[in-house]
Amino acid sequence: ERYKSLLRKCLNHGFDDVAQLNMFCNGLRSQTKMLLDASASDSMMMKDSEEAITIIDALAASDYQAHHDRS
């Protein structure tokens, strides 16, 4: 969600989905990259952009739900 917020602040960034995914994945810690790859059943970088975004959104929603279920 923080990444999406940053992109919204810069609407004319000009980065396509593939470039955005590369920047996002390259900015992750190694443990988070491993979690994404495990969720993708392959390397996240091997997925097409639409499928990768779907996986990332699902993980973010799951994490959000887990944090809000605790309170």
UniProtKB/TrEMBL annotation:
Domain of life: Eukaryota
Protein name: Retrotransposon gag domain-containing protein
UniProt organism field: Cajanus cajan
Record lineage: Eukaryota, Viridiplantae, Streptophyta, Embryophyta, Tracheophyta
